[in-house]
Protein: CsbD family protein
Amino acid sequence: MNKDRIVGTAKQAKGALEEAAGKVLGDAKLVAEGQRDKVEGKVQNAAGGVKDALKDALNK
Structure:
């Protein structure tokens, strides 16, 4: 498992918590930051998946 996948998953979780907290508190900025972190995490996780797939393909 690639480091990017781990960090990406952590960012997604952090973003989900921020978004939920923002909704509870009525803080639109916190909701937006949470959504941004979730998207960043998804992109980083996907990039890590591509790196893993390339590494596996090259090692076969």
The chain has two helices and no strands. The mean pLDDT is 95. The helical segments are 3-25, 28-58.
